[in-house]
Design brief:
Helix content is 47%, strand content 9%. By secondary structure, it is an alpha/beta fold. Helix 5 (116-128) runs parallel beside helix 7 (148-162), helix 8 (179-191) packs parallel to helix 9 (210-227) and helix 9 (210-227) runs parallel beside helix 10 (242-255).
């Protein structure tokens, strides 16, 4: 891709702030809230990305993915389980024919500070173990140095290695410095093969925000209007409350429309969100809150 393609439009920060203020001020009718909670639940990627991950922990997370709350059988499963490449096979076996996807972080997650050879090996390990989706991180250092061609080529190479697996490109927006930089990184990812663009690794304090997500959604919208091709979106990190999740869904509907309101095109990287959604759903159904201890943490 030529450098001229990186000339992203400037972000209208005032317009972004106004849109977010209007969305967060809206009230939601009870019936719409219930449907929104079920939708949000179906879009969650339950995640465990710790050095202390064990076969037992990953297996338990997969069990939770398939049995979120047996009291309400109408509830959907979550979208995916996200793990390190070494745990993909464990997750695949535990999930069986449930339809829940297995995503694997790769490319020297979370820093991305390694060679392309190592990143490709990391990706191949995940794919060989059966990963349905690959979550890669961009080389933020190269991006901040202005080496956009390096970042673009790396994304394109990993995308080629993914074959039929979908590629999520993590921008780590909290390290990019400005909304204009977020827009530029979004465009680079989209034009070089990203199936999803994702805000964050969840490993730094600055994670997803509605403002950053709005900028990324606008990049997806502009690409769709130009090419007719849909790109998916995944805000990750810091989304733990149902009310905030519903605001994200309202934002997606306003910027992109109803076509993006499925877990094929929108996800939440927010494991702790699942329990709050379950609490709020039960409250809507029976009129009282269940103790948070009723639901497993993992």
């Amino acid at each position: 891709m030529q450098t001229s393609k990186y000339s992203s439009p400037p972000v209208d920060q005032v317009g972004i702030e106004d849109r977010i203020a209007r969305i967060t001020a809206r009230s939601i009718k009870s019936s719409m809230k219930v449907e929104g909670l079920k939708m949000a639940l179906s879009m969650i990627d339950l995640t465990t990305l710790e050095g202390a991950d064990t076969v037992g922990k990953v297996t338990q997370l997969c069990t939770k993915a398939q049995h979120l709350c047996d009291e309400f059988p109408e509830l959907p499963n979550v979208a995916a389980i996200c793990v390190y490449p070494s745990m993909v096979n464990v997750a695949k076996q535990a999930l069986g024919e449930s339809g829940v996807k297995v995503a694997a972080v790769a490319t020297a997650f979370p820093s991305g500070q390694s060679s392309l050879e190592v990143k490709l090996t990391d990706t191949k390990l995940a794919l060989d173990n059966g990963a349905d989706e690959i979550d890669m991180v961009i080389s933020r250092g190269k991006f901040l140095q202005g080496e956009c061609n390096f970042v673009a080529d790396e994304i394109a190479t990993i995308k080629e290695a993914c074959g039929k697996a979908r590629l999520k490109v993590i921008l780590e927006t909290g390290e990019l410095g400005s909304l204009d930089q977020v827009r530029k990184a979004s465009d680079i990812a989209i034009y070089n093969g990203a199936d999803f663009i994702k805000t964050s690794t969840g490993k730094i304090p600055k994670a997803a925000t509605l403002h950053v997500t709005c900028v990324m959604l606008e990049a997806i919208r502009d690409y769709y209007l130009t090419t007719g091709k849909m790109i998916a979106m995944k805000p990750a990190g810091g989304i733990s409350k149902s009310k905030l999740a519903l605001h994200y869904l309202m934002l997606v509907k306003e910027v992109l429309g109803d076509k993006w309101l499925t877990n094929e095109w929108f996800r939440f990287g927010a494991s702790s969100l699942a329990n709050d959604v379950l609490l709020q759903y039960r409250k809507a159904q029976v009129g009282g809150y269940q103790s948070p201890d009723y639901f497993s943490i993992d």
